[in-house]
Amino acid sequence: MLVVAAKAGVDVSAEQVAAPRIEEFPFDADRKMMTTVHRIGDTVVAYVKGSPQELLARCTTSSRAPRASSRSAT
C-alpha cells in the first residue's frame, strides 16, 4: 500500500510524521483482519483492513452522507 501511495504522489514520510503509528495488531486468522492505530493531533484513529463480513459485523454506525446512523444487529 505504501508503494501505491508513493506512486500516486503521496509523501509517505510526511504522512508517517503527521500520523505516527502507536500500535499495530497484525493480521490474525481468527479475527480475519489487521489494525493499525495512529495519533493525529489530539485524536487516535484506527485503520482496519480485512474480511468485509467481519468488518461489517463489528460496525455500529454508518457515516454515509448526510448524517451518521446506527446499525442494528441482525
Features:
74 residues; alpha+beta; three-stranded antiparallel beta sheet; two-stranded antiparallel ribbon; 5 strands; globular
SSE map:
Layout: H1 2-7, H2 12-18, E1 21-28, E2 33-40, E3 43-50, H3 52-58, E4 61-62, E5 69-70
Antiparallel strand pairs: 1-2, 2-3, 4-5
Question: How helix-rich are the residues, as a percent range?
Answer: 25-40%
Low-confidence stretches: none
Q: Which series of helices and strands comes N to C?
A: HHEEEHEE
Characterize the main sheet: 3 strands, antiparallel
Radius of gyration: 15 Å
Number of strands: 5
Give the terminus-to-terminus CA distance.
33 Å
Individual helix count = 3
- Overall pLDDT metric: 88
Structural class, from secondary structure content?
A: alpha+beta
Strand content: 35-45%
GO molecular function: nucleotide binding
Pfam families: Cation_ATPase (PF13246)
InterPro entries: ATPase_P-typ_cyto_dom_N (IPR023299)
Task: Describe the protein in words.
The structure is a single chain. The chain is an alpha+beta fold and 74 residues long. It has one domain (19-70). The chain is built from 3 helices and 5 strands. It has helices spanning 2-7, 12-18, 52-58, and strands spanning 21-28, 33-40, 43-50, 61-62, 69-70. It has a 3-stranded antiparallel beta sheet with strand order 1-2-3. Strand 1 and strand 2 form a beta hairpin. It is globular and about 40 Å long.
